[in-house]
Amino acid sequence: MTNEIKHSIANFAALETSIANGEEQSVKELLAGQPMQELQKSYLLDLAKLGNNHAIIKLLNDIPLKK
Question: Which of 27, 40, 52, 63 is most exposed, with minimal Cβ within 10 Å?
Protein backbone atom coordinates (compact mmCIF):
# COMPACT_ATOMS: atom_id res chain seq x y z
CA MET A 1 0.00 0.00 0.00
CA THR A 2 1.41 3.40 -0.94
CA ASN A 3 1.84 6.23 1.53
CA GLU A 4 -0.75 8.28 -0.38
CA ILE A 5 -3.40 5.58 0.06
CA LYS A 6 -2.52 5.13 3.75
CA HIS A 7 -2.77 8.89 4.25
CA SER A 8 -6.10 9.00 2.44
CA ILE A 9 -7.55 6.20 4.57
CA ALA A 10 -6.25 7.77 7.78
CA ASN A 11 -7.63 11.17 6.75
CA PHE A 12 -11.06 9.69 6.00
CA ALA A 13 -11.13 7.88 9.36
CA ALA A 14 -10.17 11.11 11.15
CA LEU A 15 -12.89 12.93 9.23
CA GLU A 16 -15.49 10.33 10.29
CA THR A 17 -14.44 10.68 13.92
CA SER A 18 -14.50 14.48 13.81
CA ILE A 19 -17.97 14.49 12.27
CA ALA A 20 -19.29 11.98 14.81
CA ASN A 21 -17.85 14.11 17.64
CA GLY A 22 -19.22 17.36 16.18
CA GLU A 23 -15.75 18.90 15.88
CA GLU A 24 -16.43 21.58 13.28
CA GLN A 25 -12.91 23.05 13.20
CA SER A 26 -11.30 19.63 12.75
CA VAL A 27 -13.70 18.82 9.92
CA LYS A 28 -12.86 22.12 8.23
CA GLU A 29 -9.12 21.42 8.50
CA LEU A 30 -9.42 17.84 7.27
CA LEU A 31 -11.59 18.77 4.29
CA ALA A 32 -9.34 21.68 3.25
CA GLY A 33 -11.44 22.27 0.13
CA GLN A 34 -10.30 19.02 -1.47
CA PRO A 35 -12.76 17.34 -3.85
CA MET A 36 -14.09 13.92 -2.87
CA GLN A 37 -15.92 11.01 -4.43
CA GLU A 38 -19.72 11.22 -4.45
CA LEU A 39 -20.10 8.03 -2.38
CA GLN A 40 -17.71 9.32 0.31
CA LYS A 41 -19.45 12.68 0.45
CA SER A 42 -22.87 11.06 0.68
CA TYR A 43 -21.74 8.80 3.53
CA LEU A 44 -20.20 11.69 5.48
CA LEU A 45 -23.31 13.81 4.95
CA ASP A 46 -25.47 11.00 6.33
CA LEU A 47 -23.18 10.76 9.34
CA ALA A 48 -23.37 14.54 9.91
CA LYS A 49 -27.17 14.47 9.60
CA LEU A 50 -27.32 11.85 12.35
CA GLY A 51 -25.58 14.33 14.62
CA ASN A 52 -27.82 17.14 13.35
CA ASN A 53 -24.83 19.50 13.12
CA HIS A 54 -25.84 22.11 10.54
CA ALA A 55 -22.41 23.74 10.37
CA ILE A 56 -20.72 20.45 9.47
CA ILE A 57 -23.49 19.60 6.99
CA LYS A 58 -22.87 22.94 5.25
CA LEU A 59 -19.10 22.31 5.15
CA LEU A 60 -19.69 18.94 3.51
CA ASN A 61 -22.26 20.29 1.06
CA ASP A 62 -19.72 22.89 -0.09
CA ILE A 63 -17.07 20.28 -0.96
CA PRO A 64 -16.76 19.75 -4.73
CA LEU A 65 -17.05 16.26 -6.22
CA LYS A 66 -14.17 14.54 -7.98
CA LYS A 67 -14.77 14.00 -11.67
Answer: 52
Q: How many CA atoms lie within 13 A of 27 on its CB side?
A: 25
CA distance 47 to 15: 11
What residue type is assigned to position 10 of the chain? A
Distances (CA, A) of 35 to 21, 30, 49, 50, 51: 22, 12, 20, 22, 23
Tell me the whole-structure pTM to 2 decimals: 0.85
Q: Are 29 and 57 in contact (CB under 8 A)?
A: no
